[in-house]
Write a structure and sequence with these properties.
2 copies of one chain form a homodimer.
Chain A lengths: L1 E6 H12 L13 E7 L2 E7 L3 E8 L4 E2 L3 E4 H10 L4 E7 L2 E6 L2 E6 L17 E6 H11 L14 E7 L2 E7 L3 E8 L6 E6 H13 L4 E6 L3 E6 L2 E6 L18 E6 H15 L6 E5 L3 E8 L3 E8 L1 E4 L2 E5 L1 H9 L5 E6 L6 E5 L5 E5 L5
Antiparallel strand pairs in A: 1-5, 1-7, 2-3, 2-6, 3-4, 4-17, 7-8, 8-9, 10-15, 11-12, 11-14, 12-13, 13-26, 15-16, 16-17, 18-22, 18-24, 19-20, 19-23, 20-21, 24-25, 25-26
Amino acid sequence: MLKFTVQKSELEEKISIASSAIGPRTVDPILQCLLFKPVGGVLRIQATDLQTSVIANVKIGEYEGNDSFAVDADLIDDIVKNLPEDEVLFEYSNGKLNIRSGKSKFSLATVSEVERFPSIEYDDSGISFSIDTSILEEMFDRVSFCASNESAMKALNGVYFEAHGGFLRLVASDGYRLALAEQKLAIDGEFDFILALKSVREIEKLLSSTTEPEIKITFDHSTVSFNAGDITTVVRVVEETFPDYKRVLPKAFKTRVILNSDDFAEALKRVMVIAKRGNEKVQLKITDDVMELSSQSSEYGEAVESIPITKDGEDLVVNFNPKFLNEAIKHIDEKEIEFNFVDNLSPLQINPRNVEGYLYIVLPVRA
Amino acid sequence: MLKFTVQKSELEEKISIASSAIGPRTVDPILQCLLFKPVGGVLRIQATDLQTSVIANVKIGEYEGNDSFAVDADLIDDIVKNLPEDEVLFEYSNGKLNIRSGKSKFSLATVSEVERFPSIEYDDSGISFSIDTSILEEMFDRVSFCASNESAMKALNGVYFEAHGGFLRLVASDGYRLALAEQKLAIDGEFDFILALKSVREIEKLLSSTTEPEIKITFDHSTVSFNAGDITTVVRVVEETFPDYKRVLPKAFKTRVILNSDDFAEALKRVMVIAKRGNEKVQLKITDDVMELSSQSSEYGEAVESIPITKDGEDLVVNFNPKFLNEAIKHIDEKEIEFNFVDNLSPLQINPRNVEGYLYIVLPVRA
């Protein structure tokens, strides 16, 4: 038996956050459920897809009984968000869950064998550090779009975390481009791990929904936990080795271009109208103070644009997949950006002009 | 040859409206195109899927040449909406279209054999009448959701127009429910026709995008045109006979219930949480001053709600598909609505309490 009252608004929020851990439909219905469990005066709601787990604590008043129950997450989410009053009464007994609020009454079946709900391993004794929520959110935003959804190399289907020399560095790459963001932090120890893209999406949801100013990250070799107040997301790391990304960072630039990111984004958008109907290629022609962007489609025609630039070094003609340039520009907030070229076959480095700690690498394509 | 300048904002709007007539990809690429044609000092843009056609007139200044050209609608839409400046120069010559705006240059292939573009038949001499844009929009909104997307009876895949005794009546039904809206108008003549649902969607787009206060409707037996200022939508009517809907309008009610539409909609939303996971059925139990709504799912459980009502006549227990009730309620603006029952096997009539000219009929389902 378990009986408690709870505020609809808080329950709704915590159910929504916990539900995000649930994966696509599986054969085992217990994995489509939320586990409700009283623990030390609060109600704990848990969900897991065996890779990512969320634990959300909900404030409840006095409660009677100590049973746990597991109920279909979609169903309980749908019910709670539609309840008429803020005060909600839950009564669980012998597999039956009654929910009352105002004149609404629900009598629900729960999933039997609640003890089969996977236990969430979560060790507090690992290496621990804190980071501003907004900084971690920005770092994820700057790199996670480069992770691959498809690569056969599992290490590339995620974001690499590296703590080294007092810096936290996040890196993601799909083999054609790479993004890197770093931040100085007080981290006691050195370590690295890979988070799968699905886990990254979970953490991003946690970051955007929390009002906590700091996230506490704890790493204990096979799992990492991200704690923000009432919510803890526990993630298994990917058991792979990340490629040696430092080898692809270009050096010895021969052409440096400074440009306005809005000018470039606008011109690129227009040449992409043709490029996406053609060979998915845009040509950048760099001369003294002009960059000409052009694209062609044998079926539809061609587009030509030009924007003002400041150039140091050699003239250059080089081709890129415009989608990769566009995504890079969208993830840099600064107006002044730098394009650093070696030649028309080597990776281009894009970075904000006067901001440290973020860069983007993209391979050219052949003409 | 044809050469003109045009304002981006107006061109963008007219391209968007004309493009909506274009159907899904077909073997003939000319049907994916917009036809641009100078006619008496304006630029006419035309599109058709052979069933529905749109003619949009665009203001241009002085123009040179008198050629027409046809160009892929998606492409030109994509280009125009991204142009940098409001002033745009078009130059068409020998199958090649150049577009310039600011520093942007596009050189496009056009579709050859422009004379193959289907001519849009459109006779001004039929029966003609005008109706307030907002009234026609409301009438469509009230009935078109009841038209069937699937019925094997083609007559039900659209909206029936009937002009009779100075009234315009719109009716739509999928065989399980029916909606009817009528309006007194100065119409000289009697007629009826069926508009296919896709044509109705076109007219709805015209109504929501125009700023003209009145729509002129002209019917000439095989086509109907809807004119709103610069835009004319020409539609072929469906060559079918609409069923005799007057036979299903219930008479001799035994139970009349007056209720608040918000109360009902809220309670229904909650019982639907269970109904949609169960037998898609909601039971209404009507006693003196209470309507109890309930639903069941063998897998998930049950939900019960009650709302206050004012009842005239006999008690009743009757089952409905809740989706049909919900859609009806959403299309009535009034707070006070009437449910008029004959018995638990006969159609229910729903109407706003104090407003004439709109009613909704739905068949019950068996318990």
